[in-house]
Amino acid sequence: MTYETPRVPVPRAAGDGCAIALDLRVVVCPGLTVSVPARLRYRTADPYAVFLDNHTDLATPITWVFARELLAAGLHRRAGLGSVSVHPGADGRAGADGSAEVVFITLTGEGSSVVLRAPADRVRTFLARTEHLVPRGSERTHLDLDGLLRRLRDGGAASPGP
User: Fold this and answer.
1) Domain count, the chain
2) Fewer CB within 10 A of the terminal residue: the chain, N end or C end?
């Protein structure tokens, strides 16, 4: 009896993912920043998105969801329109490879904006971990479309949850 490898990728468990803690700095005004404990999260069940939890020291953090590709592009150039934009630091500092040492994440909602400064090396480490779980370009193979349709049909939420 021969065993044939299935051609359809085996879906990963919904709990697969990674996270990295960050000490973001809120740019209050030139020369003045305030520390904000934060975390970047990624789940293979939602392969196109990253989750940015701000104020992780609170009982209920403030979570923003945006595209993984937006975060990756923002390490090299200005990316994003609307409520989330990301761009490499323009503070004149660069790493040994010439890349920016910081990345700025701008969050806009309900008439106000906040600019968060994150260490670019931590963001690069996080993105490398996400790509180890789900390589760029293979996201669609990790989507559970049958489960999504079932949840929508049954009147549940479209998102698989945290």
Assistant:
1) 1
2) N
